[in-house]
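Here comes a specimen:
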Amino acid sequence: MLYTALPLLRGWTYQWTDVSDVLKLGEEKLIDRLDALGWILSIFSRVEGSKDAKYVKISVEVDRVYPIVFSAYDLKLASLIMPVNHGAFLTCYDDAEGVYVMALSTSQPIPFCRRVEIKIIAPTAPIEEEAAIPLKYRISYTLAKVIDRDEFMRSLHEIFGLYSIPGREAAWIPGREAAWIPGGAAARDPDRGVAWDA
């Protein structure tokens, strides 16, 4: 998987973000919208303040087509109360204190190539409480984000042994003959293994 090669690549960085605030019933907040290329490594959320906090949903939308939506109530209902390798799970469910903690930490990072959007969504009205009680939340998430796509792709080509000349379509792959370059014959540089116009 490409993620395992990241230590050998350039043009990317880790992004760790921690957000905390108050959430009112009926409210939906955008935590982050990132237009980039990268991987979701983990998302942790804690919601507290009343028994209605268990119904607060965390929404993670990947590339505008793949939504991951979960609440503490949903996860308990599905018995996802311990780490799983394919999605979100519950780490704390405390009705007495009104504290609920969830995690999205998959065995393989979740890739995104255009956009990742993280939201927190409160229920529209009290469900178990008699009155609307403001809730406290904290969301921490870690991404591996490509910050220089060209440099990232150059380093990716290097580790796979694919070299190219800027502005040329042709490239030389070690162990093969020199690639043909449209518009001219091809030759190979024995030191760098790069194809060029003869």
